Amino acid sequence: QVQLVESGGGLVQAGGSLRLSCAASGLFFSNNDMGWFRQALGKEREFVAGIRWSGISTYVADSVKGRFTISRDNAKTTVYLQMNSLKPEDTAVYYCAVVYGSNWRPSDYWGRGTQVTVSS
Q1: How far is CA 52 from CA 57, 80, 98, in A?
Q2: How far apart are CA 70 and CA 48, in angstroms?
Q3: Residues of the chain whose pLDDT is less than 50?
Q4: How far is CA 115 from the centre of its chain?
């Protein structure tokens, strides 16, 4: 079955960096678009970044533009989220998911998430 496993979260001070990884198995990874979402406590889920199967086309939400970068390594079946200049408002559980369509719609395939906490 499809498995997505996030890692790399943790506690970091404001201004710091983290790199999240999402290791995928059970699917033809290089055929699938992938995305990162986050959900802060008491808030709705937010789409953060997406990357097409080829890795050529990406999307980053305005809230993180210029600070976060999404990338993928199809040989390693892994998608990454490099997060720089972190702010307390970036604190959330971060999830990776298989996405599809021109509007990066999430599929039913999600990881369990990794907590990112940014202290001020």
Answers
A1: 5, 13, 10
A2: 9
A3: none
A4: 12
